[in-house]
Write a structure and sequence with these properties.
alpha/beta; 26% strand; five-stranded parallel beta sheet; 7 strands; Rossmann fold; 5 helices; single chain; 129 residues
Length: 129
């Protein structure tokens, strides 16, 4: 049996976090274990002692948002794939994230289907290693 996909959800909004977890739990092809954090600081602390396969990252957090916070996170992700979840449709921010390591940039209004597809794609990439 394959090891479960380890996912870190970085989201400070309880409703958005619930939607993300429901989308993840709806993936039937493989098992997923997830952990949620609410701030950039919590996430960086968690990543310092834990390895994950995928990070679902909200770009607007109480103690860090935008490009600078994204860059701080990316410096700590190791081999994890990052999927950005955001309410922003800023094309410059999208380009920055994608050109600095994000696998995908998903607007929160389209989370369920796109998130399942993105995580399934990441799982396939990880299995190719």
């Amino acid at each position: 049996m394959r090891a479960p996909l380890k996912v870190l959800i970085v989201e400070n909004d309880a409703v958005a976090c619930r939607f993300a977890t429901q989308a993840i739990n709806g993936i039937e092809q493989f098992r997923v274990e997830w952990t949620a954090t609410q701030t950039l600081a919590e996430s960086l602390s968690f990543l310092a002692t834990n390895e994950v396969d995928v990070i679902l990252y909200d770009l607007t957090l109480p103690n860090g948002s935008g490009k600078a916070a994204f860059d701080r996170l990316m410096a700590s992700v190791g081999n994890a794939k990052v999927i950005v979840l955001t309410a922003s449709d800023d094309p410059d921010l999208r380009q920055h994230c994608l050109s600095h390591g994000a696998e995908q940039f998903i607007e929160k209004g389209a989370v369920s289907v796109q998130l399942r597809e993105a995580i399934t794609k990441v799982r396939a990439l990880l299995e190719m290693k």
